[in-house]
Amino acid sequence: MSGSPPRIVVVGAGFAGTAVTVALLRRDHAAVTLVERSGSYGRGIAYATPDPQHLLNVPVGSMSALADEPGHLLEWTQRRGLGVGAGDYLPRDVYGAYLEELLATADGGRVERVAEEAVRLDGDAVVTAAGRRLEADAVVLAAGTSPPVDFGRLAALGGHPGYIADPWDHDAVRALATKSSVLIVGTGLTMIDVALSLSAGDDGPRLHAVSTHGELPRRHRDDAPEPGEPAVQPGDFDTADALVAHVERRACEAADWRLVIDSLRPVTQELWRRLPAAEKAAFVARHSRRWEVHRSRIAPSIHARVSALRAAGRLSVSAGTVAEARPDGDRLALRIGDEAMVVDAVVNATGPAWDCRLADNTLLRRLLADGVAAPGPVGLGLATAGDGALIDRDGRPSERLFTLGALRRGELWETIAVPELRTQAAELAARLTR
Question: Which of 102, 333, 359, 410 has an alpha carbon 20 to 30 Å from 44's alpha carbon atom?
Fold first, then answer.
């Protein structure tokens, strides 16, 4: 890639694709093509919501998109007179506008934008569904997360007008506001978005949310003190159970368990890397849900709103699994454990499809089928080297295919939050323009 600027094709224009594109442009030594099948550049799934009730899950002060300018977002809000402080939580659609403006400002007409779906590689080119060839010295896969998979019993509801397979289809979700009853399968962050959208007014459907454990995301503190030294160091424990037991003990002893969880942020990726493959699988099977609800927390105001909905009887939450699901005329009949219910609609909010073999992404499935890419540890994302290079089925790292963010989950575990993404973007841009 010496001499003329390298030709870099970035596939995906959500946060990860936007961050790496901006980082490349700031280095001013790359010809960038940004491919996004939706035709929307900057927002991605996370920040495309039009609902002002949907807030960031992290305060403004920690959400700058630029690794070397941690106050960039706060300064942006101040220039626009939004009246927020570092500890406030912006609506996600406002943050999406921030990303769009950041990309447009860095772009200056230098980025070729292609509103098509990338479906395969052919030699040195990325080929779109329309047959367009995009020549590239390097390709960055910034595909982000895919909608939930219609697993098990829910697959029987496919095609029914009352079944919403994609919880991020905001129009489809809002259309359920006139229904009487809605079952939301999943009790995580996506469920909370759906519940907020369907309960915006005084009326709305009766909501029931169910998941295997019935666990809801915990709330952030009203303040954000420094967490201190990590509660555990990489290498201290070689089994998932021992590691989790130690962290839980420290959390119970602490004045606030959040400080213990937050203290792990600098070492979480290394803790994950050092676990043997079998212990990674054990952590995912036995502990991942408890980690997620404590690690990925919600704004205090969102927690208060969800609590009010539950207290008013508008939202119920329970533990259970879908044992049976079938259409029942205009409605849907289900059995959750031993309980039978008939509802007007069902929303699949079980979370992203982390297994790329099941993902709604033609290019990823093709790369895996061709052996150019391989599944990541525990089937999460893709196998990658330390610099984000894809590793093929024979264990060889690529010299021209790279990724960041969600597709590195199997290798890094913690890799979808803004602080991790912006750092990966800056490091990858440096690698590609070196």
Answer: 410
Q: Which two tokens stand for residue 69?
A: 């300018």
| Residues 411 and 366 grouped into a single domain | yes
Model pLDDT, residue 256:
95
* Backbone φ and ψ of 421, nearest 5°: -65, -45
DSSP string for residues in 183-204 = EEE--SHHHHHHHHHHTSSS--
Task: Name the pairing type of β-strands 163-164 and 345-348.
Answer: parallel
Q: What is the CATH number of the domain that holds 390?
A: 3.50.50.60
Backbone angles phi and psi of 275, in degrees to 5? -70, 135
Its pTM surpasses 0.90:
yes
Question: Cβ distance 238 to 274 under 8 Å?
Answer: yes
pLDDT tens per residue across span 184-218: 999 999 999 999 999 988 889 999 999 999 999 99
294-315: pLDDT as tens digits: 999 999 999 999 999 999 999 9
Whether residue 314 is contained in a domain is answered as yes
Residue 272 tokens, joined = 């994950």
Q: Do 124 and 46 share a structural domain? A: yes
- The residue behind tokens 């295919």 is 401
Is it the case that residue 242 has pLDDT exceeding 60? Answer: yes
Give me the residue label for tokens 């499935």: 365
Return the number of other C-beta atoms located less than 10 Å from residue 298's C-beta.
Answer: 22
> What residues make up the domain containing 275?
240-295
CB contact at 8 A, 342 and 179: no
Same domain (yes/no): 302, 390: no
